[in-house]
Amino acid sequence: MIDEGIEDSDILEGLNVRYLKIFGLWKVINDYRKTGNRNGIIKFEVFCTFILTLPYVICQYMSYFNIEVDIQKATFLNLYPLPALQMCCRIAVFWFRIDIQCRLYDLIKKNFLNIPEGSRAQIEEIYKRISKVSNMCCMATLIVNATIVSLYVVNPGISVDYILYHTGSMTEVTTGRKKILGGWYPVPMAESPYYEIIFVYEAICILWGGLFLAVYFSLYYHVLVCLYAHFTVLGFQIENLKMKSVKNGGSKSCIKRDQNNNSIVYENLIDIIRDHQKLLRYFEELRTVYNPLVTLTLGIGVIVLIIGAIQFLLGKSINPGFIFQISEVFALQGLEVCMFCFGSSSIEAASSGLQFAIYSSDWYKANVKFRKAAQMLMVRANRGVSLTAIRMYPVNVETLMAILQFTYSTATLMMRMTE
After folding, report:
1. CB 182 within 8 A of CB 81
2. pTM of the predicted model, to two decimals?
């Protein structure tokens, strides 16, 4: 893929890509669009991500064969490898589908659609409003991640003695040195210099993973929201396909003006149909790339929500600091799941809402040619588009409700099994 780069002046009004610039991803996207090659920044980030996360994940799952565990300890040991796997998935998808992802960044351009000059100011306001929502969501993710990183590094609360020798409630174990993340390593963890090395390693892991989880979320989420913005703008344009009233309609000059008006409105509709087809093509590519991301985000989100519920229910004397740390991880996964579900629902509503927008236009005043074109657009917009998980499962607000219900049912079932 060799294309032009994206300048700051090309970006939708109000959209903030500062995080992508700070962490080098904006340069990665522009360099690939211009040259078709991955630059050194993305190679360095991929290398560091897998070098840091894979040893940690492997050690955590090896711990089941080396230390004693019960259901409470097992769920706790599973809590921290999951975000690491999520980080690996996000950067792997970007690496292997970078060609499509960089092409999808056409969606953040302000000139992606054919916008009539007369309605440009109103459409810019629509873009600003939706961009503001996207910025707030990405900022919330970054703040939650930064809070988690700071709390875990400044106030480590997991006892090495608990990991090595105990089961049951973690807060009942008050002996032993504290570490940042839960899990076992194949070295004498409680002794120097192994304890210090593990502490520094886990601090680097959580700093790297915590920040890049939020940045890569922004990388994908901005495109999703921009797609919703473009569908919304198309709906606005269709609603404003109005026929100008012509006085004294019997005269030849008025009939000619009426024909010219019909012709102009018809040409605007044809431009809208082309833009709609363009959006559908981009959406099919987006759905292909985002399917593994959404599947993993929802899957890990469900597991983390279940683990969090079990930890709260099983813990009898829980440290307030530990509660807050678990709540932050719980909130992060819940936030990302909600944002993907609401984002997909918004696209579905905006894309299917084009039918009502056509109904709200002056189609009944237009000629037959306009009505046939409008009817064709209504047929194409009959079924709204949405993200999918596991290839076929639609992602929307109903999915979010199903996730919450499944989390509650599973946590309750596991609690009864332990009792």
Report:
1. no
2. 0.89
